[in-house]
Amino acid sequence: MPSMAHWRTPETLATMTRTTRTRPRERFVSLSNLALAVALASIGPSAATGLQEVDDGSDLDPRVFEYDATLPLDVQVTSRVDRGGHEFIDLTYASPVLGRVPAHLYRPLNAAGDTPALVLMHGLPGTRHQMAPLAAAYADAGVFVLAITAPYSRVDLPYREPALIPAPRFDEYDRIEAEQVIQDLRRGIDLLEQTEGVDPSRIGYAGFSAGGGYGALMAAVEPRLAAVALMAPTSGLVTWLDHTHESHPVNQTFRELSAETRGSWRSSMWPVEPVRWLARASALPLLVQAAELDTSVTRGDTETLLAAAPEGTLVRWYDAPHGLSPAAFQDQARFFARHVGVDATRFMSPPRGF
C-alpha cells in the first residue's frame, strides 16, 4: 500500500468557527420570507394534495446530517501519480454511514506553507471524475482539492445496482442518500483538516448541478466552510421535478407512480430539499453561477433557488449551457481568491465546461 505520510495523525480537532467575511457588492434582492414560504408551499408535499399551506421550515432538522466524527477515517490509497504541478491521489475513506467513499485528492506540489483547499462535488448523473479538469486547474494554482463520488453513483451500497446513469429510486433510499451525501462530504472536510499542508480555516466548496444543490445544504449545516460556489445548481429533487418538462425520462418515471407513492416520496424528501435550507447560509460568502442556455435545470428552478438565497449572495448569469464555460470558472477562481486565498493569477481555466 502506498505511503500515508501526507496525513497527520488525527488527534483531538479544535472546534472550527466561521469568520464572517465582507460580502460582494453585487447583490440579489430575494423575495420576502412570507412570499418565499408561499412559493415553496406550492411546490412541496402540499402541492400533491392541492393544499396551499405556508412553508415555515419547522421540519428542518440539522441533526439528520450529523455523524460520529470519532470514527476512524481509514484512508486507503490506491495510487499516486505525479502530474508536474500536482500529485493525483486515488483513495477511499470510510463513510460514517455505509460503505466507502471513493475520492480523488489533488495535492499541489508548488505550495508554500498551509494553503487553501476546495471540496468539489459532481452532479447527477456523475462521479468524481466529472470534476477532474477543474480540480486539476485549482491544484496547479496551489490549492488542495478533494472530489468525492456520491452514494447515488456508487455500486458498493446494497440497494444500488450497477448503472451508467444513476437516477432517483423514488423510495425511502433517496432520503437516505440525500443525508449520506452531506455526511460523506463533511467527513471529507475531516480528511482535509488532517492533510498536511491544508489550512483548515480556508476550505471552500464548489458543486455542480445536483452537487450545487447539495452545496446549499452544506452552506447551511457545515460551519467549517469559508465560502461556497453553486454551479448551475438544482433546487432539489422535488423542486426540479416540478419545473422539469413532463417528457423528461425521470419525470415520466415519477408520473407513472401512484399518487400515494408520489405523495409519500415528496413528504419524505421535503425536509432535506436544498432550496429550503439555503436561507440559513447567511454567515458565509455565497456565489451562484447560472446558465442562460441551461436545458437540464430550468430557469424556473434556478429562480426558485435564487429567491431563497440570503441577502448578499453574488449571482452571475452566463451565456452558456448547463455545463457553464471557462469564463464562469475564472469568475469562480476570483471569488475564491477573495474568500479562501486562491491565487487567481495562477489559475488556468479548463478550456470548456462540464
The sequence of SSEs as H and E is: HHEEEEHEHEHEHHHHEHEH
What integer is the average pLDDT?
85
DSSP strand count: 9
* Major pleated sheet: 9 strands, mixed
Distance between the amino and carboxyl termini:
33 Å
Strand content: 15-25%
**Class per helix and strand makeup:** alpha/beta
Query: In angstroms, what is the radius of gyration?
Result: 19 Å
**Anisotropy-based shape:** globular
Considering DSSP H and I runs of 4 or more, what fraction of the residues is helical?
25-40%
Alpha plus pi helix count: 11
Strand order of the largest sheet: 1-2-3-5-4-6-7-8-9
Which spans have pLDDT < 50 for at least 5 consecutive residues?
Answer: 1-35, 48-54
Describe what this molecule looks like in 3D.
- The chain has 354 residues and is α/β, with parallel strands linked by helices.
- Helices cover 31% and strands 19% of the residues.
- A hairpin with a 3-residue loop joins strand 1 (76-82) and strand 2.
- The longest helix is centred in the middle third of the chain and has 22 residues, at 172-193.
- The chain is globular.
Describe, in short, the structure shown.
With 354 residues, the chain is of the alpha/beta class.
